[in-house]
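Hello,

Our lab assistant flagged a job as stuck in the queue for most of the afternoon. It eventually completed. Since we weren't sure the result was trustworthy after the delay, we are filing this so someone can double-check. Below is the sequence as submitted and the structure that was eventually returned. Let us know if re-running is recommended.
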Amino acid sequence: MKKMILSIIALTGVLVLGCTCSREGNTTYDNDYPLSSFAVAIGESYYHANINQEDRIIEIGLISNTNYITGVEYVLGKGAESVSPDPESFLGEWDMEQTMTVVMKDGSKVAYTIRFPEYDSSMEGVIFYDDFDTDGNPDESKWQLWKRGTSESNEEQSESYDYAYVKDGNLVLVADKENGEYKSGGIMTKDKFSFTFGTVEVRARITRHPDGNFPAIWMMPQIPYYNEPNPISGEIDIMEHIKQEAFVYQTIHTNYTFNLKIKDPSNLATPACDIDEYNVYGMTWTEDCISFSLNGQTTLEYPNLRLSDEAEKKQWPFTAESSFYLILNMSLGSDRPNSWPGPIDDAGLPAIMEVDWVKVYEPDTKNK
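-- returned structure --
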């Protein structure tokens, strides 16, 4: 079953905490030892271990999340014949420590312990992560600027890093008026990262929210199940905020809810929160249900109804054959009569949302 569509570049950017060269110390390529070298791969990059031959410790200090290791490469010494178990069998199941045995040609065995001293159990099951800890432009291996369009959510998009940048540990998304023109910032993972089934968590706060502000954390289909325009192929709004409301909107949009206007079961939650403070906005997507959360508390569960006339009504485009990417943006309303965020309070600008971090977990791992 298709699960995740991942960029190798994005993965290495998430996990690498240093250079890819071999570490100094007891690393050796002397074939007189049972195991001469050991490295793990993430995509096309290899991270070489420091091998303490006296204590038989293999230490790989550059990997903080072992879930993304895609391969293993090692060199046996002259007297060695094989290893057991094959370290390739650890892929997807690495622990902080793992033991493997080198079987020598004379039948003797030498056990080695593989360690990841920077392993972070809180990152277990995480398939995408950005904590925005480097000032400047967002990591271009993970994000691209959200494009200008004709909808209220993107018609002022500046397509400029002046309005979407990283500073002091936050992604800062801004909407302002410059030389009489409204401009706003947003980024997305389209064509860089998308996934099918899993959990998204985003820690964010809205530090300036004048009337007309319209920040959003949401998802759109990279691979639509129905090859038709939004919202027939689905839209997942993890958080939207407007005006001075003391709550946020969490919404599912499909043909069933939007065009047919069938709202039973409910596709909307409006949980109250202090938007000026950091909140963790969450969404879990399975083949049976999409649920939203706020600070770890479930706010809405929207089920797959498995309609007999699904092909006509299109209630559930969130199938194993679909894939969604993330969008983080600040937008503005307008003076149009049907503007949802409403007229813009120019004097209150800029509108600002700050995002502390983004995590996406693979299915069934978030609450283990």
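-- support follow-up --
The delay was a queue issue, not a problem with the job. The result is valid. The domain at 131-361 is CATH 2.60.120.200 (Jelly Rolls). Residues 1-30 have pLDDT under 50 and may be disordered.
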